Amino acid sequence: MASKLSTSEVKSLLNSHLEEVLNPEIIDAVLESGRPLEIYWGTATTGRPHCAYFVPMVKIAQFLQAGCKVKVLLADIHGFLDNLKAPIELVEYRAQYYKYVITSLLKAVGVPIDHLQFVLGSSYQKSPEYIMDLLKMSTQVSEHDAKRAGAEVVKQSENAPLSALIYPLMQCLDEQYLSVDVQFGGTDQRKIFALAKDILPKIGYRQRAHMMNPMVPGLQGGKMSASDPDSKIDILDTADAVRKKLKKAVAAPKEVEGNGVLTFVEYVLLPVSALKEGQGKEKFVVERSRDGLEPLVYTGIEQMREDYRNDVLTPQLLKPAVTEALITLLEPIQAEFQASPEWQAIEKQAYPPPPEVKKVKKVKNKGSGYPGAAKKVEAQPDGSVEGAGEQETDLGTNVRETLKKLDIVGEATK
Ligand SMILES: N[C@@H](Cc1ccc(O)cc1)C(=O)O
User: Fold this and answer.
1) Which residue out of 48, 72, 78 has the highest number of ligand 1 atoms within 8 Å of its CB and is therefore the one to mutate?
2) Given 147, 159, 191, 286, which residue has the most CB atoms within 10 angstroms?
3) What is the ipTM of this complex?
4) How far is the C-alpha of 320 from the C-alpha of 288, rounded, in Å?
5) Residue located nearest, by CA, to atom 12 of ligand 1
């Protein structure tokens, strides 16, 4: 490997926090050969990256620190194959936004990024070779198996669109086209990884290894809901917003299992401290000056867990410490955003604010029985419009006109 670390240091960086590795012998053989291990992690560029992204980012930082070559696949096409989560028109901007965030995040963690490469999915997934391989694959995978492979990743529905079946096949093929040794992802990707192991040899390609990190509880605990703006901490949230959101975080005293705040320390803050120090030493400090006590200084999660169970490390102590550490982690990223007009412009294009709900031109009130009676048109948080295009009346035309001006009319209502 290119790094100055010993083989055992490299292995411990690579394996830290992983739940499972498929075909580890593939990784061992590369490490023994002395060439850098090539790994990719793919992300469908849909919603705004939030603090949960720090978990895979820390792994990527560790891969880079260990001297691996890392490709981040900005899976724009996957972003709309999955239930059109990213509208086709926006997906390009979103991919760029992700690139800014991920680069900045990794720089903030303090690892060298010269072995990091971004690849846009659509840059090769539309090539004749790729498409032909995809078609070949489709002759080897049953509808049932393709569906099952995506069960934990792609939105499930009865009578699912064909795109939900194409999605996992393409993810398998990406391993070949990105010419890596390993695909990294969460354990939710396991069924797709298993399909890749099975299917790539059937179309003449070699199997890859797979590294999986566990699915961890979110920082704020409880149920994450896309419609609740407070349920996720955005990378660009102000310090005050972070404080407010973390105050609401669920962290039951003495309860270690499923504790999102402690988990964030384990998977993000401690490993980041080790990467930043550059000596592999984890450190997390909990201030207690308010109580006139010395700070608690931790060098690993086990001690913290123990103290938390015994209520020495109370939620009232832990939460503010995590809050301030997170704010410090976000600071350089936000400073970079503030200093970059390009990034700011992309952010606006990638995530346009939901269209204002304009009052539909008032029509003479002829009572609600009148066929053109006003229908409420509501802009939804995801940019869709509820109630639009439901009636073919004069008012329907009016509504469409208004929406057209706002540029939010879907194909079906045009
Ligand atoms: N399935 C990944 C995204 C992804 C897409 C394509 C890939 O090749 C790899 C990963 C996710 O859930 O976000």
Assistant:
1) 78
2) 286
3) 0.99
4) 10
5) 153
Distance 171 CA to ligand 1 centre (A): 6
| CATH 1.10.3720.10, applies to 7-213 | no
Residues 174-221 pLDDT 10s: 999 999 999 999 999 999 999 999 999 999 999 999 999 999 999 887
Residue 189 near ligand 1, beta carbon < 6 Å: yes
Q: Where in the chain is the domain with CATH 1.10.240.10?
A: 239-350
Instruction: Indicate where the chain has its CATH 3.40.50.620 domain(s).
Output: 7-213
Measured at the alpha carbon of residue 248, what is the angle toward residues 242 and 249, in degrees to the nearest 5? 85
End-to-end CA distance of the chain: 57
Report angle CA 306, 15, 309 to the nearest 5 degrees: 10
The stretches in the chain having pLDDT less than 70 are 1-3, 222-230, 278, 358-414
Pocket test for ligand 1, best of 55, 171, 176 (most atoms within 8 A of CB): 171
- Spelled out in words, what is the top-level CATH class assigned to the domain 239-350? mainly alpha
